[in-house]
Design brief:
The chain has 307 residues and is an alpha/beta fold. It is 40% helix and 15% strand.
Length: 307
């Protein structure tokens, strides 16, 4: 393969070992390892972090290795986003994998080819390795374009990442201008959902970095690439998970990973697949009328039941 890989790790030796084995099989020419530090007061976590760092840097193929090891914990939001910042300060393009995202073999050549193909196309923001609705829509091509920025195994370019703002500083002005209505014309449920979520992110109520990718993609009027098959498996469901539960959701159980075949068949149009996007918004993000009404009624419920 030609592309460098950024490996984002923390405190899970078991999943790190599985993902590193996939990286080792692909033999990237350059490997960047960014590791957040142990959290204060967590017994044994410093030792787990050390184990993970040793696993993630055990390179035995011709490869340049660079590391960014944090002494203290920055959290998901700043720990991950600053690691990606560091990667793109050193590389014009590359692949990003977290320690709980296991890629299939075809993920790497798929990313390699599309990073090169769309290198100078500013309308494409990222290449995703995840398809969370595989087989739900008919496809003759190897991938399609989307408004969804799925980050369970992905690749991008410095030219795209430079627009990313983890703090979303322009959000209040964009909200006041009704910007999301232009992103999702005639779709009030989507506007309501993302307005609520971006309000939470801007206020610092969520320690995460990933929804800001969608925000940046839409701000730059860009699209993302989604493969026809799901090329990654999420291992991040269990007791040690930060943002996921112990049980995989139904959509993920149904998104069985499968390799793509080559040569890739490229789509003729770069228009987002609106059918696929709406399905992802509903099944993955849970954007439905029922859940929207439930969210609006939540403050009233607390008012009526203060205990």
């Amino acid at each position: 393969m030609n592309s460098p890989v950024l490996f984002l790790v923390f405190n899970r030796p078991s999943t790190t070992k599985q993902v590193f084995a996939a990286i080792r099989a692909a033999r990237p020419p350059r490997l960047y390892v960014a590791a957040d530090g142990p959290r204060a007061g967590r017994s044994g976590e410093a030792q787990l972090c050390e184990q993970v760092r040793a696993i993630a840097t055990a390179v035995d193929w011709p490869c340049e290795v660079k590391t960014l090891f944090r002494d203290s914990n920055l959290g998901c939001k700043m720990g991950v986003s600053s690691g990606i910042d560091w990667f793109f300060e050193n590389e014009p393009e590359g692949i990003i994998l977290e320690d709980d995202v296991l890629p299939l073999p075809s993920f790497f050549p798929y990313c390699d080819e599309l990073l090169e193909r769309y290198r100078h196309d500013d309308s494409v923001w990222m290449v995703s390795g995840s398809n969370l609705i595989p087989g739900k829509i008919p496809l003759d091509e190897s991938y399609f374009f989307s408004k969804n920025a799925l980050i369970w195994g992905w690749a991008s370019w410095r030219r795209a990442w430079q627009h990313y703002d983890v703090r979303m500083q322009a959000w209040p002005k964009l909200k006041q201008e009704g910007w999301l209505k232009s992103v999702f014309p005639g779709q009030p449920l989507l506007v309501s959902h993302w307005t609520y979520l971006f309000d939470e992110l801007y206020a610092g109520k969520r320690d995460t970095w990933d929804y800001q990718c969608a925000y940046t993609c839409w701000r730059t009027n860009s699209v993302t690439i989604t493969p026809a098959q799901n090329l990654t498996e999420n291992l991040g469901f269990g007791e040690a998970a930060t943002h996921t539960s112990s049980q995989k959701p139904t959509f993920l159980l149904e998104a069985i990973p499968a390799d793509l075949s080559f040569p890739l068949i490229h789509p003729k149009s770069q228009a987002p697949n609106s059918t696929a996007d709406l399905m992802v918004f509903e099944k993955v993000h849970g954007i439905t009328l029922f859940k929207t009404m439930k969210r609006f009624l939540r403050p009233l419920k607390k008012l009526l039941n203060p205990a």
